[in-house]
């Protein structure tokens, strides 16, 4: 079972979506939260870091693979490194949710820029196994035709369900695979879907992707189609570019429809871009 910890209001809402799956044990840390570990409201990021409460009792017994979910716009995420110091025995990965900067005040923008850069440097140096980045602006294009009340919930559900499905396939024996061991220095990543009409929708505009992994979920009644392999090879080739090496795995499923997912990795620090 993988442990997932959410820090801050946005991180905790995403963790609530992961909690729907039995494969995960979830924890939440936020300001004055009732169903998790509460951190008292502080006036500045520096105060959050200084006054980070002990998490040893709350996270006692946590071991193995750990996914830490946060959004840098939440000032409470200044406590991230203090919390993770207690979990060095775990294989830690970060799921970072990048906000639409138009929705942030100047203090939040500055804080998110710092957190975004610092966590990437830790990931790149090998302190973290990987840092997965998703961008709420990009997800606007993925999640369409939802009401205002449903919008935030649908965004969080899309992040959790997509990551979950890729995790399921990572732990499932494929019918066929060209997957290779990921480069040790490719520790910055994003993930996404390929729509039924063939559009690739990665959840972050990853600069200089060096490796891409495609997951093809094929209904059982189509897996023996003699033209399927040629079709998939052609599809993967059409998505390849000069920068990224592309790999794919094919899985037989009980679903009625075909689904395609993608994971992309880079060796390069990603720039914190703001809309003009």
Q: Helix and strand layout, with pairings?
A:
Elements: E1 2-7, H1 8-18, E2 24-31, E3 37-39, H2 45-50, E4 65-70, H3 80-84, E5 91-98, H4 106-124, E6 130-135, H5 136-142, H6 148-170, E7 176-177, E8 188-194, E9 200-202, E10 209-219, H7 228-239, E11 245-253, E12 259-266
Parallel strand pairs: 1-2, 1-4, 2-3, 4-5, 5-6, 6-8, 10-11
Antiparallel strand pairs: 7-11, 8-9, 8-12, 10-12
- Secondary-structure element order, N to C: EHEEHEHEHEHHEEEEHEE
The profile of the biggest β sheet is: 12 strands, mixed
Globally, the shape reads: globular
Overall pLDDT metric: 94
Distance between the termini: 43 Å
CATH superfamily of the largest domain: Tubulin/FtsZ, GTPase domain
Derived from helix and strand composition plus strand pairing, the structural class reads: alpha/beta
How many domains?
A: 2
Strand content: 25-35%
User: What's the architecture of the largest domain, going by CATH?
Assistant: 3-Layer(aba) Sandwich
The count of β-strands is 12
* CATH topology grouping of the largest domain: Rossmann fold
By DSSP (H or I, 4+ residues per run), the number of helices equals 7
Radius of gyration: 19 Å
Helical percent range? 25-40%
Poorly predicted segments: none
Tell me the name of the CATH class of the largest domain.
Alpha Beta
User: Looking at the chains present, what oligomeric state does this protein adopt?
Assistant: single chain
